[in-house]
Amino acid sequence: MDDDVASTRERTAALDALFADGGHEQVVAVAHEAARAGRRVALPEDLPAVVRDALRAAGVETLFGHQAATRDLLRRGEHVAIGTGTASGKSLCYQLAVLESFAADPSSRSLFLFPTKALAQDQARKLNRFHLAGVTPAIYDGDTPREQRPLLRRSAGVLLTNPDMLHVGILPAHERWAEFLHRLRYVVLDEAHVYRGVFGSHVAQVIRRLRRVCRRYGADPQFVLTSATIADPGEFARRLVGLPFAVVDENQAPHPERTVVLWNPPLEDASTGVRRSALAEAGHVTTECLLAGARVIAFAPTRKAAELLYGHVRRRLEDRGRRDRAERIRPYRAGYTPEQRRSVERRLFEHELDAVVATQALELGIDVGDLDVSLVLGFPGTVTSLRQRWGRAGRAGRGHAVLVAGQDALDQYFMREPDRLLGGSVEEAVIDLHNPGITGPHLEAAAYEIPLTPSDEEYFGTEGMVQAERLVKGGRLRRRGDESVWSHPYSPAHAVGLRTASREQFAIVEGDGGEVIGTVELERVFRFCHPGAVYLHLGHSYLVRRLDLEGRTVLVDDFDGDYYTQVKVDKNVQIAGQADMRELAGAVLFHGDLEVTEQVVSFQRRDLTDGHVLDTAVLDLPEQSFPTQAFWVAVPQATLDRALDGLSEGDERAGPGALHAAEHALIALLPLYAMCDRWDIGGLSTSWHWQTDVPSIFVYDGYPGGIGLSRRGYRSFESLATAARTLVAECPCEAGCPSCVQSPKCGNLNEPLSKPGAVRLLAALLG
Length: 767
Hints:
The chain is of the alpha/beta class. The chain has five domains: 201 residues, 3-Layer(aba) Sandwich (Rossmann fold); 209 residues, Rossmann fold (3-Layer(aba) Sandwich), CATH 3.40.50.300; 60 residues; 57 residues, no CATH class; 199 residues, no CATH class. It is 36% helix and 24% strand. The protein is built from 25 helices and 31 strands. The strands form seven sheets. Strands 1-11-18-17-14-16-15 form a seven-stranded mixed sheet, sandwiched between helices. The protein has a seven-stranded parallel sheet with strand order 6-7-5-8-9-4-10, sandwiched between helices. Strands 26, 27, 28, 29, 30 and 31 form a six-stranded antiparallel sheet that branches. Strand 15, helix 14 and strand 16 form a beta-alpha-beta unit. The chain starts with a helix and ends with a helix.
């Protein structure tokens, strides 16, 4: 034991030296989260003896305070949203309810929904440890053999599945599940923060369909939602499920001390803003942590980055004469077989591995044992996701959480404004319950399952019933008395994927083997899958050989070249409806509906090393139009002139450059206010718009119909614009770089841009 204590002290000292504030120029901020003692309570005296025995057999002798509070609420019949942080024992909150349910009524049923198959596997293992008769978890997903499915329908006490399978495999065939649905007592949505944006908007409709079908069979299940990292869990749960929720968000589990470190690769060229490779820095930090004796999980943004980082760390360890340590590292990503992933999880849990380099596949609550360091390469898009990843380490002893910043504008904003990251709250999850492109298909699916009637306003709201009328008039549904029924003899659910807003999909087909490797929405196919495009799929590079518009296919080949592609897009926007307006100090801010028209007209091949243009190719592709939501800023010409007065670059490009650069900065930081990625947002700036009659900046949702992202930007515009000005003004580059005003998704190839103009314009908007 003394040797273990000494080893722990040496490891902690070595990590403290590596991450000491001021010890390396890369360490820009260090924060310490104090240890928390937690509060335990005795197992309730009224627990059934069989449940008490099952808990103790699994090593559960007491409950945390929040676990006991959840039990009390569930026993009162409440729906409960649990938001108590990582490693706080949220699973036991609902496991205990299920155990008690079975003890009281062995015929009761429970449904657990997980966003990934791996989580279902992990939860099945945890449930099996109780060995309570009747509590037999059964996994029902796309990998379940068809011959086993009838048995699961008849005998599963706890069904573990995902929203996609509920959508296409259970609800359309609810007659086969009649007994299960009749006896359904609990529905659990674990890791609920994943249900946001398009996916969350779809899942909200699937849950309403589930509640409706349950009512048909006389069931009214209680819902339990869990999420370690989400703002206002009660309101989020209400929107997701459509019912009122009690909230348990006081974390009473103990937590060791944690040190949070922001690590910024040093500048190599201050004038251009170019920094040392973030991947190389992450490799260095991971290696040093391993040499200090720490156990590490390192998160990479893509499969390719995970493999590169894994190889980088192995080589560094071998060069230092530590082949023994190099053999105890493994990558973990999509693309491996389930058996390979389970092997890595088991070996990590059992301390047979010292490190894993993972994609987001290991972000969620799979139990991989005790780790000392969680390193994240590049800000993952949301504070929620970052904290999930950081929470994977330091569960049993003092932990270190590290963010190695990338070149992206949001990464660099946090490096200059660390308090926004370290002291700020997590984002609100955005769910849109009224996007017609999402609700329409689910109304059709619901009508197939059970005919729609006016009473279904309880589930789909007034707007849903109005939309159902439109579907009747359009021939998608047909009237039968006061009922609306699906017009065809087959289920429409199979034509609707939950993870996209579009019904129209293109299959991406690998040329050599003819394997379908994925899909891409019609709205994105010209931008990312035009002929000659380098297309990234799950971290792997492909070259688009042919785009077949009639056959809805994209033919691709493996690609290992040294360039990437970037399109030029002509855009036009038309204001279709104004919902909100307010005066700013130097402009007028609006929110409403927009009709966006885009045409991809050409693309550039750019060198991977420094981004310089190799050549440009013209494309002949049709225009695309879609309705969406947006906020826009109408800037009086006088405001723009005053802002740019005296600017040294006072030519005819200063105005357009200032507007364009300000647009990019606003888009770069909008993920701070809405749980999204910059790729979910589009924008346009113009020196004159025919409807506003003044210079204007438009920022819109990148999904047909919109999902509420721009609405968050409208509500928080003053704070957003202030942060955007700080981002641009404090960037050390001279004329603008990827860390401030250049955007990797710019349809105008980052021309023109005026960094000083953007600083002045954003200040003028705010007065």
